[in-house]
Amino acid sequence: MAYGARREAAAEAERAKALQILETVPKLRDLKSIEIEFDHDETGDPIMWIWLTMPPERHPTQQQIDELGAYQDEAFRRLIDADLEHWPHFRIREVA
Amino acid sequence: MSISGELFDQAEHLLTGYGKPGGPDQTDMRRAISNAYYALFHAMVDDAVDVLCPRTPGALARHFRRAFVHTNMKTVCKQFSGRRVAGLSDTMKSSFTDPIESQITVLAGLFVQLQAQRQLADYDTLESLAVSKIAYDVQTAKSAWTSWCNMPSSNNKTAFLVSLLMEKHWKRD
């Protein structure tokens, strides 16, 4: 298998593993979907953006903020414990 | 008040939207997350300079601060937040004792997270930031900073601060 194809296969395996881990995290209320995008940070280190699709909220309550935080923290901890190549970072895509 | 405290205060003020009917706008949130990142950066650098740099001559500390490199600090922080200290240089590994205090691991993890978020906020003008995420990131960073400030001195705390500057050099050996 060519180097590029091997890298792609490894990335897909990591995506599947990350999604499997995220499935084990208690569900976040209002979370519509999760997508993973591979990228590099500004220093060239491999990272994964974990896109959480949520409804738009201009004035979130403290409870909504805390629930998002609890989900993000737990997901981060489980992904880090899995020792993945790509460092997890979270982003939110607001869709009505 | 320290520069970190002032940066957090300003970040919180920005996130109130200061009376705007739609709440904080994108620029407010961009500045807030940048403030939170730099609050952690300056807190760590301030404490590292206290550990590493003599108090006299006074001008030395100002120059000394400039030796800290964001990228190198991130590399060290990843080791701690990921509990992968096995990846540290032998010099650093021998300087730590288990368990590493949560004030260090939490602060380190947030530094890595916020460095990437700040890059987005400051350079990706197409990124649409969500109030809930920015609010959580700022609150969590402030909480981690407060815990760090209240953390008593320890060998691990000193070793962590030293590693922020020195690990790159020791890792090379």
Please give the structural blueprint.
The complex is a heterodimer of chains A (96) and B (173).
Chain A: H1 3-23, E1 33-40, E2 46-54, H2 62-81, E3 87-94
Parallel strand pairs in A: 2-3
Antiparallel strand pairs in A: 1-2
Chain B: H1 3-16, H2 26-52, H3 58-65, H4 70-81, H5 90-93, H6 102-123, H7 131-150, H8 155-172
Helix pairs in contact in B: 1-2, 1-7, 2-6, 2-7, 2-8, 4-6, 4-8, 6-7
Question: What's the short story on this structure?
Answer:
The complex is a heterodimer of chains A (96) and B (173). Chain A is α+β, with helices and mostly antiparallel strands and 96 residues long. Chain A is built from 2 helices and 3 strands; from the N terminus they run H-E-E-H-E.
The helix content of chain B, as a percent range, equals over 70%
**What share of the residues of chain B does DSSP label as strand, in percent?**
under 5%
Give helix % range of chain A. 40-55%
Largest chain interface and its two residue counts? Answer: A-B, 28 and 28 residues
Could you give the count of β-strands of chain B? Answer: 0
**Number of domains as seen in the coordinates of chain B:** 1
Number of strands of chain A: 3
Task: Report the mean per-residue pLDDT of chain B as an integer.
Answer: 92
Q: Helical region count of chain A?
A: 2
Distance between the termini of chain A: 43 Å
User: What is the rounded Rg of chain B?
Assistant: 17 Å
Secondary-structure element order of chain B, N to C: HHHHHHHH
Main sheet summary of chain A:
3 strands, mixed
Specify the oligomeric state: heterodimer
